Amino acid sequence: MTVSDIKKMLENTDDKLKVLYDDHNLEGLHDLQIFEIIGDLDDDCKMQILHNVSFIKKHNLDAYNTALLVLILKTLKDTNKEKILSESQLISDELHIEDSQICTLIKSLSSDIAKINLIDKYKFTERSIFEIIGTLSNENKLLMLQKYDNLKTSQKKDILALFDNKSLINLIFNGNKEILQNNHIFPYEIIMNLDIDRQKDFISHIEELDLSPNEKKEIFAILKEDVKSSIDSEKLPQEYKSTLDMHFDMYSDVNSDGNVKINNFVSLVIDYDKNLEDYQGLDRLIKVRPPEYKDGQTNKFKQLCSICPNLNVINIIGGSMYFSTGSEYLEAEQWISSLLDNLNPEYSDAQKIAIIDNAIGKKISYSPDFDTELFDQQNCRALWKIISSGYGVCNGVSSVEKYLLNRIGIEAEIVASETHAFLKLKDIEIPLANGEIVKGTTILDPTWNLARHRFDGRPENFFISYEEARKHDIAPDGNDYLCHQNDDKLQDATFNLDDKSLRCLFKSVGLTNENDSFLISDLIYKARQIDKLCENNPEQNIKNQFLLLSKKCPEFATCQDSTMLILQSILLNPASLNFKKCVVNRVYDRKDKNKSPVMYVYIASDELGKRFYFADKTQAQFVELSTEEFISRFECYDFDLEKNNGIRPWETNEQEKVDINLAQSSGRVVVTEGEER
Length: 677
Prior knowledge:
Layout: H1 3-11, H2 16-20, H3 23-26, H4 31-39, H5 43-51, H6 53-58, H7 67-74, H8 78-85, H9 88-94, H10 99-107, H11 112-119, H12 126-134, H13 138-147, H14 153-161, H15 165-173, H16 178-182, H17 187-191, H18 196-204, H19 213-221, H20 225-230, H21 238-241, E1 248-254, E2 260-268, E3 287-288, H22 298-307, E4 312-317, E5 320-325, H23 326-341, H24 349-363, E6 365-366, H25 383-389, E7 391-392, H26 394-407, E8 413-416, E9 421-431, E10 437-444, H27 450-454, E11 462-464, H28 466-472, H29 487-490, H30 499-507, H31 520-533, H32 538-552, H33 560-571, E12 581-589, E13 597-605, E14 609-616, E15 621-625, H34 627-633, E16 634-635, H35 638-643
Parallel strand pairs: 3-4, 6-7
Antiparallel strand pairs: 1-2, 4-5, 8-9, 9-10, 10-11, 12-13, 12-16, 13-14, 14-15
């Protein structure tokens, strides 16, 4: 039977589907011919056919990547097209129509409300969502920007650029500026992506905008060169004139594997011969690496940081960029200069490294919010921010030490395993206790030395061989965390400084007692004396241990990771205090919007019952709270709860296994009698 024969049959019957579903009628026809027949049917018949998946597959209507099905859908009236597109399971799972095709169909609808309702029916890519929103009216684009959260900031910027200039001015800058504020979008970021004609038109209306002088100055600074050259500078206020000869570049942050990240950014090219005051207020547009210290521009860069305290100072780790502010750079550089300028020029490289490694341990602690829902991958690796804040993670801390060593002419290489980062020092001259000087390649792990240095302990990861470093990766339960495993880069790291020579080295720079004993021995001795004096009074023992801690380390409440290790291994030693349970961990105050980590101690014993103490940063001491007060005030982080199957430490009597994931710790501090002397 031919196509014409079937069309005539359809014209003369009310039950058109009965004709089509009769296999005898369609025998010998191929899919395109069947599609031609369906094309003449009304919407009701087409929709019933689209629901008949077995019919579609039998006649290969989906054989061309579903193109025929999409063509059928396109011929439907809008209301019917919307109705069937709302059946996402049918469209995606049964008819297997691709997201890009669905997106095109949705864009073809005339109703904005229909488009908006359909967006959440499918798991679209951000690009598809952007394309659909781009077809909406300005009012509905605005509605989506206000209420739709499934778009990245970069996509929202692109959507804003789709507004015509008049709407951009009236609806956004003068009408709904909170959209920009809530999404951390700055006006210049929208204007910089407009074409030349739109930028010229926008500038002609700039005095009509509800923008601050700095925001307007930023816009002038990022205008395209052709736009700037067309502006009559004589009519501009002085603060805007200075921006017309400024230039900017576009950059992309890249991963170590070379893949470009989405966070492209613009940065002004700094002319250090220019009056640096001209850059005032343009902090957000300045993202630069500081000049090398051999370069005469260093002092001018510091001057620029004073003028623009919120400019972005770049450091790079593994191909990725991290940003500190200008004020953080100045604060960090002041600390660095104080440290390096006071190094004895007569000291050997090994002595200088010992002082620097110790100073970093005194200044920096492992990020206390690591492995929580609040952890910021950026801040903990921004070199000068780490020094200013006092917090970082392994590759950030290693970058700090590498930077300091490079400043005094000592080359260091950052080496990474799958989970950890540390330093390799090649051909370093190292003095031995017998007076001999040897040269060797060795490992220095500044992160694992943090807690030791903070509390004047023996740095266990200072000038060690690869073989020794791998031994340190193994936890007491035998689990090998592979923290230092990197055979390719570390096979030549064979030098391991013996204990006597290490103590002599640190004694030579004043970091041990006269008898070569590290100063932590005094803390250990006093802690054990308290244990003996308070043998029958655990409550007083705890209070005295806390008091000892605050005297030894007044900043203990802020260097949380290091303090937690000391509490667990020395001051609240389970061998001395007969607790059923002792937990030293972190929580956050429920009233704190930032959810800043707060260190706490929870103790359960037959004699004391349940006791809660938290480290009060303002008072620099542990404060005891009743069970009810503590539980109502503090809460565990979601990530910590997930690791413990949703159970808070005080909700079970089981003794917790101490979390010693070595890859994210500032080093174990395991102390037994006689270890430190």
